[in-house]
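Q: I'm writing a short methods note and want an example of a predicted protein-small molecule complex. Could you take the sequence and the SMILES for adenosine-5'-diphosphate and return the bound structure as tokens? Please keep the output block clean; save any remarks for afterwards.
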Amino acid sequence: MEVKTSLLDNMIGVGDMVLLEPLSEDSFLENLKKRFDHNEIYTYIGSVVISLNPYRSLPIYTPDKVEEYRNRNFYELSPHIYALADEAYRSLRDQDKDQCILITGESGAGKTEASKLVMSYVAAVCGKGQEVNKVKEQLLQSNPVLEAFGNAKTVRNDNSSRFGKYMDIEFDFKGDPLGGVISNYLLEKSRVVKQPRGERNFHIFYQLLSGASDDMLKKLKLERDFSKYNYLSLDSATVSGLDDAANFRTVRNAMQIVGFMEDEMQSVLELVAAVLKLGNLDFKPESRCNGMDESRVKDKNDLKEMCELLGIEQSVLERAFSYRTVEAKMEKVSTTLNVAQAYYARDALAKNLYSRLFSWLVTRINESIRAQAKTRHKVMGVLDIYGFEIFEDNSFEQFIINYCNEKLQQIFIELTLREEQEEYVREGIEWTNIEYFNNAVICDLIENNQNGILAMLDEECLRPGTVTDETFLDKLNTICAEHQHFESRLNKNSKFLNDHSLPHNCFRIQHYAGKVLYRVEGFVDKNNDLLYRDLSQAMYKANHSLIKQLFPEGNPAKVNLKRPPTAGFQFRASVGTLMGNLQTKNPNYIRCIKPNDKKAAHIFTDSLVRHQVRYLGLMENVRVRRAGYAFRQAYEPCLERYKMLCKNTWPHWKGPARQGVEVLMTDLQVPAEEFAYGRSKIFIRNPRTLFFLEEKRKQCLEDLATLIQKIYRGWKCRSHFLLLKKSEIVVAAWYRRYAQQKKYQKIKHSTTVVQSYTRGWQARKLLRELKYQKKCEEAVTTIAAFWHGTQARRELRKLKEEARNKHAVSVIWAGWQGTKARRELRRLKEEARRKHAVAVIWAYWQGLKVRREYRKFFRANAGRKIYNFTIQRIMQKYFLGLKSNLPSMSPIDKSWPARPYSFLEGVHAELRRIFHLWRCKKYRSQFTEEKKAVYEEKLEASELFKDKKALYPSSVSQTFKGDYLEMVKNPKYQKLSSAIDEKILLADVVNKINRANGKSSPRLFLLTKKSVILADQKTGQVKTSLPLPDLSSVSTSTQSDGFFALKLKEGSSSAVKGDFLLSSDHLIEIVTKLHRISSLAADREKLNVDISDEFLVQFKQDKVCVKFIQGSPKNGNSVSCKRKNNRLLEVSVPTSP
Ligand SMILES: Nc1ncnc2c1ncn2[C@@H]1O[C@H](COP(=O)(O)OP(=O)(O)O)[C@@H](O)[C@H]1O
Ligand SMILES: [Mg+2]
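A: Understood, no commentary inside the block.
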């Protein structure tokens, strides 16, 4: 496909008349013709599209073409109606401006076609979707329905619209169609009952008869033959190129799509059939007694069938055609109708029936296509009104149609010529005024409220008295006589008196598009548009839902005596509303031109086109356009739209909008002659400049979109990244925690293992040390035992050698026995220990076995470690407890803390033994030599007397003082002591028992190493000195007395005196010392000590027995001694307490 970049490329003639050079009417026409001949039927005057009817189908409305023009600039491609439609749609969608498309031109110039092309283009380019498509389809399909009922073949157009149509298509903010509203203007209903020559009734009648099935026709009580129906003209019943039957199917299909119910369609067709039937009613006169003729229905069959179709009682309708009831001031007057009146009534009914049906159809279609959403709509109005008409015979309808066209021309002039020029002046743009014909005067002639033609017609209609079309014309003749556009034969203005082209019953108006001669006949009637009340009431009574709706005024309950508004009045009002509506929207013009009168292709009738160009004011249009500016826009929206093209104005311009636009234009280097600054708007001369701006904007928007996208993507990625980062931190924190936990557990585990090993090692080391210590102790004990054994054996040998001491032998024997016993005990103990050890080892081995078995379940070695630790702790505690609980250091202290655990028994006993030995040693080590001697004496005393003499225990606590008399110090004994040259070991006072009577007398008793000396207590004179070797033994009793006998050896020198019986408080000491001295002297025998309660003493020659008895209490506490006879000396000793 060839792509054009400019309107000027490959152009036939000039596409835009603004660019035509030189500009003249001839060149204008020539350009149009040239283009028409090359099938270029569209030409621009700026934004206005001129459309020439090609009268043949051209291949320029294909979907490809739609795509080609879609979203393209208006001047970018060769002129086309699609370019205008696209411009209007985009401006509606993108700039939110309501649009109206004004299509003007003569009848047959192609307006209806153009409107359909615009609609189909918009439908093709706007949004898609199920709902939207349905709306579009309904909007488009409303056309065939309305065309079938509202279009007819005329001499000018085979498909001439016989009604005005204005359709508002509503869009949402996206530009998707939401629905629409159709307004219809004055249907040419006279066509129902009568058609001019060469013309047809409305299409639907022919379509129904040709297209309906036999069945349907039968139901509607119709016959297929057109000639059977009076209302259908026969001369052009079939039109070439028009397939009525096919069109009927199209119409029914369209009705279905639009949303008509099956019964609604049936009702509509019944009405159409009824109209045809109505046309066939004929009336005949019947003379009445008052001489007046009264009409009667001639052939009642059609009436009957019609009444059956509409459900009307036949007699009611029949009567309505014969009588007429007039109601005035509560009075009802019934008059008969003559035949002519009956025909008038019949036609009036048919016209009303049909036109009301048509209005109902429009209302019904509107119901279907009305936009559902209540949101704000954007609106595109398409106006396809009947074109300017000049027939041979022009009546009220043409007058109305042409008036409407005058109004449209007026709006065109207002907006394109006058308004534009005035705007230049208002905006202070340099401007030279361009002359044009303003048809406001003609509009005023017709619509002026006081003396306008329509106002006068209404006045005539409402005037009491006889009113005819002629009286109306008379009125016009008087009132409009001076008007330069009004012409009449009877005008007071004599210039038309001889104008034979102007019949007497006509008036002529110089319309903007030409002079039109109107015949006044029927003006009053058509304006009144009266239907006899009897007929409307008959219709209201019909048992047919649609008919009843169409004739609401027939309701007897709502009798309204007021006249309904006249047709002219209604039309004027609705045209007024339409004009008001159009003025609020942005106008887009399509000016249709008819190239010839023959409805033929390829024919360009110069004069005809020239005429249209003239009255359409196209030349003036071009001139204004050329002198002026193609485009204008207020500064604010202009700046808003193009501010992105300049750095200074983007994104915000702080100053006034005009300055902003100036900066923008300077920055863009637009040549100064291309635009002008008005007071509130900028004016751009050439469309090309606008394209340039738009092109730049488009590019810029793409860049901006890229920028926005870039920022958005950046933002999106960044927020995504931040989210990821945040999540990563959370995950890492959790993971680190987990890892640290794991690591900690591992370290803890390892520490426990290391710790347990270390503790195990330490425990083993300690155990080894303890074992070694124990072994050492055992060794020491063994050695000691051996040493003691050696010693003992040596002693034994010595004792054996001496063989004198049986006691010693027995001691050694006992010691040996003891050793043996102990050894045996030890052996037994060892054996028991071994057995115990075996049991323990067995238990350990069992435990080990079990542990090994259960090692997989328990931690290896833990038990042993815990055991070792526990043992160690117990030992520690035991030792520390023992340390703080030790008994006193006294060797005789037998106390020893209780053993806490049975396994410690051996150790506990051993420790007790060691401790005892040690404290004995300590005790011993504190003794001096003297003290030692004293103790030795004491020991010897013990050996001698312990358990043998009752006196002994009391002596234990007494110290062996020895010198009780203090011989050296006491001067009393000075002499005595000096007489003794030996050291005195003992000095005391003793009692010497008189051998004869047992009485005692005190004597000093002195003991030296060699002798015992007895001296007088008072004089200190030595009485007896006994050398110790002379003493054989000493005897004492077993009792607590202090008596002792010194026995002398027989034959010794001292023996002469006999033995001595003495008593002393210090008996134990004296005897011990005596014994000691004797045992220490190596040259002497040991002194014997006899302890017995009966012993013999040698008194001179006599041997006297000294007997000790238990004293009776009468003797008191003292010991008494009595000589019983020669042989017996009795000593009574008090019983010891
Ligand atoms: N663009 C066109 N292409 C082909 N034929 C057209 C075109 N416009 C109009 N015609 C023909 O001219 C006839 C009259 O057009 P129409 O739109 O009905 O006229 P108007 O509505 O102005 O009276 C149509 O029936 C059609 O045959
Ligand atoms: Mg039309």
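A: Remarks, as requested: The longest helix spans residues 687-802. Confidence is low (pLDDT under 50) at residues 1-9.
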